[in-house]
Amino acid sequence: MIETERNHMHARFQGHRPRRLSAYALAFAAAAAMPGVFGDLDTVGSVLVIVLLVICLGIHEAAHAWVAWKCGDSTGKDLGRITLNPIPHIDLFMSIILPGILLLSNTGVLFGGAKPVPVNFHRLRHPWRDMSLVALAGPASNLLLALFFLIALKFFVSTGLYNNASSTATARYDDVLPVVLSKTVKFNLLLTVFNLVPIPPLDGSRVMAWLLPPGVRTPYVALEPFGLLIVMALVYFSHDFNYFLVHTMDSMFAALDKIASLGGVW
């Protein structure tokens, strides 16, 4: 009975298809919470943000693959996806063509993502629990990246050790490099929060599926084909959902800022 249910749920929930999680998260979250994301950047600055985002999305996917390998599934590792090199994670259309078109069209909305990492549900030693750990690895990597870029932002603003730096720390926040780093921090926080929303196929839904009892899990997982429509509707029509995203991002930023500044030391 357990194996039959697990096979049935696997076919509907995971199957042998690549997991498409972070690719959608960046698209809808950027449109919802960061309209006009490149409004205060020139072309060079905008390209730098996109390059950093591609790298961050690659790290997000590498984190999924690494945890899956540690939990018993070497599919991602065998495909060379446990790497900080962004090239194996790049999807020609989602990572380059589509973001480039949107950038050139001045829509103010960034839509794109990385090549998803395939995860074989049945190879995981404890499938439902391990799948939740694999899913959490992505947002966790984005949270750590947000902290890294926030520390870099504070360092450059404090020291002015970059070309054409303004004369005061306050003025430096408007320089290209600090603005690029600031937007990269925000995007990584956005990816963290958005991916943790428990709506299939976002990462948070993998955790919720593990926690739910089998009788509730089945109809919950069955929502996945409609999940992105639900998410899109919430993004564009729910003020409360967008408030949740922004408020949670602000709370995370405040916590990371205390860590990055060593409790306000710098």
In short:
This protein has helices at 2-14, 22-33, 43-70, 75-78, 92-104, 127-159, 169-172, 176-195, 203-211, 214-221, 224-237, 239-260. The chain is an all-alpha fold and 266 residues long.
Written description of the protein model:
The chain is mainly α. It has one domain (2-260). The chain is 68% helix and 0% strand. It contains 12 helices and no strands. It has helices at residues 2-14, 22-33, 43-70, 75-78, 92-104, 127-159, 169-172, 176-195, 203-211, 214-221, 224-237, 239-260. The radius of gyration is 19 Å and the shape is globular.
Task: Label this structure with key terms.
single chain; mainly alpha; 0% strand; disordered N terminus
| Count of helical regions | 12
Q: Tally the structural domains.
A: 1
Unreliable stretches, pLDDT < 50, 5 or more residues? 1-33
- What value does the Rg take, in angstroms? 19 Å
Distance between the termini: 58 Å
What portion of residues belong to β-strands? under 5%
Envelope shape: globular
**Share of helical residues:** 55-70%
Tally of strands: 0
Structural class: mainly alpha
Write down the overall mean pLDDT. 83
Major sheet summary line: none
Order of helices and strands: HHHHHHHHHHHH
